[in-house]
Amino acid sequence: MADVNQGSVLPGETSPPALDGLNATDSNGTDAVNATVAKFVATPEGTALAYGSLVFMALLPIFFGALRSVSCGKSKNSSDMPETITGRDAARFPIIASCTLFGLYLFFKIFSQEYINLLLSMYFFVLGILALSHTMSPFMNRIFPANIPIKQYQLLFTQGSGETKEEMVNYEFDTKDMICLVISTVVGVWYILKKHWIANNLFGLAFALNGVELLHLNNISTGCILLGGLFVYDVFWVFGTNVMVTVAKSFEAPIKLVFPQDLLEKGLGASQFAMLGLGDIVIPGIFIALLLRFDVSLKKNTRTYFHTSFLAYIFGLGLTIWVMHTFKHAQPALLYLVPACIGFPLVVALLKGELTEMFRYEEVSAEDVAAKEGTTQVEKKDK
To answer: Name one Pfam family in it (predicted).
Structure first.
């Protein structure tokens, strides 16, 4: 999940919107305030409902994504296999994210914003359909009527012929997957045509859940490196330059969760949104999921570190919102989320005497498992 902007929180309607963060904007992602239009002032009820809903929506992909991450590595379907992030990947990620962010900044400065957003919309349209379909699949398995026959399908693309034939794509699916794909396509068309905030949120939740489920940190040290690097990245791009804000004002894609602050007044046609970037969900989320898998590895039938980090995330996000409203100034969300999500579990591990065991915990990537199984089979044949 290569989310280029990990997040920031901006107060009220007087600040420009952040690409990943909390803010109040109009339906086009631009400021609703100018010389001729009065400022929008959200009611206390509307503000509480908007930010409370965003916090709740942020917790959903972290919770369910973490649970699904425990078993996704056991899947035989290659599309469900997790991608393992190593220490080297974690160290490079903030640099790559910074280059991507600055590249987008240059693109929007040089080329037409309309055509760039059209290209991005089509790109996220395809990704969103696949992500939402994958998210819906387990739920469809539970509710699919038993009396309806399930047919199996296979999508196979090969290159070459004879002995040189090589599989490029080998995807197996069934009737339930087809239904999920059709529903996801309907949501995708709805988003492309209307850019409705509910369709945006469905795609955003799917992206976040898939990110937490399929992106695995190989150990705690890697998680600390990744979150620490993005902590610096977030603070720099929010406080040090206007690049993130400039990109945010131009970028139209379902990479954020939004909720209207004027919902109580205007219903589903509301247009003043608070928003939370997916980076503020996925980055802490993959660390929380790692702690859940560490809990499972302890085989103590407890989820101490998962629950601790989950509560730490709620505390960090709540603190971000509080600071934003208190000081009325833009805040990078990871400035508060990273210390909370790392610090709380480490303190608990220190008190329980499991700090060494926590840092010794290591996950093996899918590629290493496959290579090991291949080596074992070769050794058996040699014997």
So the answer is: Peptidase_A22B
- pLDDT-derived band at 317 (thresholds 50, 70, 90) equals very high
Selection from 379, 334, 304, 272 nearest residue 8 by Cα: 334
Note if the pTM is more than 0.70.
yes
Closest C-alpha to 337, from 315, 321, 306, 322: 315
What is the C-alpha separation between 125 and 289, in angstroms, rounded? 27
Domain ranges of the chain: 8-144+182-367
**pLDDT per residue as tens digits for the range 106-129:** 988 888 888 888 888 899 999 999
Is-contact 253 38, C-beta < 8 A?
A: no
Q: Is 31 a catalytic residue?
A: no
Catalytic residue among 31, 262, 280, 295: 280
More confident residue, 109 or 341: 341
C-alpha distances in Å from residue 162, one per residue of 154, 166, 167, 303, 336: 20, 9, 12, 52, 57
Higher-pLDDT residue of 255, 375 = 255
Q: Which of 20, 177, 234, 262 is catalytic?
A: 234
Give yes or no: 262 in active site.
no
